[in-house]
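Bumping my old thread because nobody answered last time. Still need a sequence for this structure:
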């Protein structure tokens, strides 16, 4: 299964913020949207990724008062990315090895979507359930 296939199961909205926006406004946006990450865009191009984890790590590095800090001070500037034609297994492996919960997806070198580990897990379970049903059907009709 390709990443492109799991994108049909979710919204195609990419939530974003500017690198010059305040961390306070980023946190408010994360909370109001109920999401765990925001793509950081400058002139329509992805320049980073901001996750809940980045906010917490920023609090440790810069102190708990981050409200006036700019997003650019705590965002990941070179996030791990995948291509829409990569496999879901690749996404699962890279997210697990990199300890990340959100993965920007590129298509033709341009930002296409962002997926969460939850999206990947749901796709893997769906595929495993399908394979399981095929195996059960095969065993049930096993020639004797």
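Sorry it took so long. Here it is:
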């Amino acid at each position: 299964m390709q990443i492109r296939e799991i994108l049909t199961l979710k919204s195609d909205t990419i939530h974003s913020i500017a690198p010059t926006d305040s961390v306070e406004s980023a946190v408010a946006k994360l909370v109001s949207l109920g999401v765990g990450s925001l793509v950081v865009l400058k002139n329509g191009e992805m320049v980073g990724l901001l996750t809940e984890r980045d906010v917490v790590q920023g609090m440790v590095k810069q102190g708990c008062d981050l409200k006036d800090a700019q997003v650019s001070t705590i965002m990941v500037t070179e996030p791990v990315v995948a291509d829409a034609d990569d496999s879901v297994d690749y996404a699962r492996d890279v997210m697990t090895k990199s300890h990340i919960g959100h993965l920007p997806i590129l298509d033709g070198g341009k930002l296409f979507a962002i997926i969460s580990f939850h999206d990947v897990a749901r796709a893997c379970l769906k595929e495993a359930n399908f394979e399981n049903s095929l195996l059960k059907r095969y065993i049930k009709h096993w020639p004797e």
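The chain has one domain: 3-140. Let me know if any region looks off to you.
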